[in-house]
C-alpha cells in the first residue's frame, strides 16, 4: 500500500490491533444470526511525510451507511463545546445574515443549530441519511453526500461559497485526504476561513489512546502533516488551538495562501516545535507503541477476570466507537461485561459489533447495581461519573481501562 498523501510505499508499522468489524455497525437480534465482516486494524507510518494511516480499510459505504448510530447531540459536554465555538467564531469573523457557514459531516445539526439561532445562513453536508434527516427536521438545510472536489464544484456552480467552512472530527475520517482538502480550497471564499478539529496524534501516542484507532479513522494527524497537506493544496494554516475534546485535539484555522487578512500566529510554530521535540518527525518514535497497547489490554482483561472470580458484577457505560474498539481488541464479551448502558435510543436494544454485548438504557444499572461500571468513552468520564454518581450508594465504583 502507498501513502494516501505522498504516495510513497508504506513499510513502517506502528500498531496492529488485529481484526474487527466497523465500530458503529451495531446489530439487532436478527443481525446476530448473520455473518459479520471484520477488517484489519493495522496502522502504518509514512517515512516520507509522517502521515499515520490505516493499512487496509472498509469502504466509506460499509461504515457510513444509512443506519448510522452516532448522533452528536447526546453529549452535553460536546454541545457546550460547540455552542462556545459558535459564539467565539461568530465574533471573530463578524458573521451575520449575509454570511454562509458550511459544515462538512454536520451529523444531526448539533453545531449548525447555534449559527441558525443567530440568523446566519447555514448548510450541512452529511453522508448518513438518518442523521441528516434529524438536522433537516430542525430546519437546517443539509445535503447527503460525501464531500470532495465534485461536491465542492457542484456547490460553487449553484453560486455558493463558504465564509466559514467547518469540519469537526471529519479530516481523519476521509480515505482520500487530497481530494477532501482540495475540495476545501475550492469551496472556500477568497477571504473565508476554514476551521478543522481532529484528535491530536501526539496525545494518542503520549496517553496510549489506542482505542481511538478504528475503521472510521483512516488517518491520525499531527500539525506537521496537516500543514504540509494544506500547503500542497494552496491553503495556509495561520492559527491553532490545543483543545481538550476527545482526549486532546487540535483546532486549526486556515485560509487561502493569497489571503493577507490573517497573519500567521506564533501558535503554529510553537506547536510544530512541540511535535518535533516529541519525535513525530522520527520513525523511531512510533516503534514502541505496540508494547504500551498490549500492557493496557493485558491489565484490563486481568482485572475483569479477577472480578469474575470474585463474583463481582461488571457493566459498562457508553457504547462509543472507542469502547467497541477496545472491547474487540481485548476480546471481552458479555461473560466479563454483562451489558453496556447508553443514553442514545439509536443504540439501545442492539448489540455492539464483534463482541455482541447488549446495549440497554441506564435503568438497567439501577436494577442490577453492578460493583463496577467501566466508562468506555473516557474523554467524557467527568460528565458520566456525575450522571451516574448514584452507584456509590451501593458501593459501586467507576473504572477506566
Helix share bin: 25-40%
> Which sequence of strands runs across the widest sheet?
6-5-4-7-8-11-10
Query: Which stretches are low in confidence, meaning pLDDT under 50 for 5 or more residues running?
Result: none
What structural class is derived from the secondary structure elements? Answer: alpha/beta
Which geometry do the CA atoms define? globular
Span of the ends, CA to CA? 33 Å
Largest sheet: 7 strands, mixed
Beta-strand fraction estimate: 15-25%
Average of per-residue pLDDT values? 94
Strands, count: 17
Radius of gyration: 21 Å
The sequence of SSEs as H and E is: EEEHHEHEHEHEHEHEHEEHHEHEEEHEHE
Number of helices: 13
Topology diagram in text:
Layout: E1 12-20, E2 39-45, E3 52-54, H1 60-63, H2 76-93, E4 101-104, H3 112-117, E5 122-125, H4 129-137, E6 142-143, H5 149-157, E7 162-168, H6 177-187, E8 188-199, H7 201-206, E9 219-220, H8 223-232, E10 235-243, E11 249-256, H9 266-278, H10 289-309, E12 314-317, H11 321-330, E13 340-341, E14 350-351, E15 358-360, H12 363-368, E16 372-375, H13 381-387, E17 397-399
Parallel strand pairs: 4-5, 4-7, 5-6, 7-8, 12-13, 12-16, 13-15, 16-17
Antiparallel strand pairs: 1-2, 2-3, 3-9, 8-11, 10-11, 14-15
Helix pairs in contact: 5-6
Description:
By secondary structure, the protein is an alpha/beta fold. The chain has helices at about 60-65, 75-95, 110-115, 130-135, 150-155, 175-185, 200-205, 225-230, 265-280, 290-310, 320-330, 365-370, 380-385, and strands at about 10-20, 40-45, 50-55, 100-105, 120-125, 140-145, 160-170, 190-200, 220, 235-245, 250-255, 315, 340, 350, 360, 370-375, 395-400. Strand 10 (about 235-245) and strand 11 form a beta hairpin. The longest helix has 21 residues, at about 290-310. The protein is globular. The two termini are about 35 Å apart.
Amino acid at each position: 500500500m502507498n501513502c494516501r498523501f505522498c504516495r510513497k510505499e508504506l513499510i513502517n508499522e506502528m500498531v496492529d490491533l488485529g481484526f474487527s468489524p466497523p465500530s458503529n455497525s451495531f446489530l439487532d437480534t436478527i443481525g446476530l444470526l448473520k455473518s459479520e465482516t471484520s477488517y484489519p486494524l493495522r496502522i502504518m507510518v509514512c517515512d516520507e511525510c509522517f502521515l499515520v494511516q490505516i493499512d487496509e480499510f472498509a469502504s466509506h459505504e460499509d461504515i457510513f451507511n444509512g443506519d448510522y448510530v452516532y448522533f452528536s447531540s447526546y453529549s452535553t459536554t460536546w454541545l457546550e463545546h460547540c455552542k462556545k465555538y459558535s459564539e467565539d467564531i461568530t465574533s471573530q469573523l463578524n458573521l451575520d445574515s449575509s454570511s454562509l457557514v458550511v459544515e462538512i459531516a454536520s451529523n444531526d445539526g448539533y453545531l449548525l443549530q447555534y449559527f441558525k439561532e443567530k440568523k446566519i445562513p447555514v448548510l450541512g453536508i452529511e453522508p448518513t441519511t438518518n442523521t441528516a434527516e434529524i438536522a433537516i427536521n430542525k430546519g437546517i438545510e443539509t445535503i447527503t453526500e460525501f464531500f470532495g472536489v465534485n461536491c465542492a464544484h457542484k456547490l460553487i456552480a449553484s453560486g455558493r461559497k463558504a465564509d466559514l467552512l467547518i469540519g469537526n472530527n471529519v479530516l481523519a475520517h476521509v480515505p482520500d485526504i487530497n481530494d477532501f482538502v482540495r475540495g476545501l480550497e475550492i469551496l472556500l471564499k477568497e477571504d473565508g476561513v476554514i476551521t478543522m478539529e481532529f484528535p491530536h496524534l501526539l496525545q494518542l501516542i503520549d496517553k496510549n489512546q489506542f482505542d481511538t484507532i478504528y475503521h472510521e479513522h483512516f488517518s491520525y494527524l499531527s500539525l506537521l502533516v496537516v500543514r504540509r497537506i494544506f500547503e500542497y493544496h494552496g491553503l495556509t494554516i495561520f492559527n491553532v488551538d490545543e483543545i481538550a475534546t476527545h482526549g486532546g485535539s487540535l483546532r486549526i484555522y486556515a485560509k487561502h495562501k493569497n489571503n493577507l487578512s490573517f497573519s500567521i500566529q506564533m501558535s503554529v510554530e510553537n506547536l510544530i516545535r512541540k511535535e518535533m521535540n516529541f519525535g513525530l518527525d522520527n520513525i523511531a518514535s512510533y516503534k514502541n507503541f505496540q508494547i504500551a497497547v498490549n500492557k493496557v489490554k493485558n491489565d484490563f482483561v486481568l482485572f475483569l477476570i479477577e472480578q469474575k472470580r470474585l463474583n463481582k458484577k461488571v457493566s459498562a457505560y457508553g457504547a462509543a466507537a472507542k469502547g467497541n474498539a477496545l472491547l474487540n481488541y481485548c476480546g471481552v464479551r458479555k461473560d466479563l461485561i454483562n451489558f453496556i448502558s447508553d443514553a442514545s435510543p439509536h443504540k439501545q436494544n442492539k448489540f455492539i459489533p464483534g463482541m455482541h454485548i447488549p446495549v440497554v438504557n441506564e435503568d438497567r444499572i439501577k436494577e442490577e447495581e453492578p460493583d463496577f461500571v467501566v466508562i468506555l468513552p473516557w474523554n467524557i468520564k467527568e460528565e458520566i461519573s456525575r450522571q451516574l454518581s448514584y452507584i456509590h450508594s451501593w458501593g459501586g465504583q467507576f473504572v477506566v481501562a
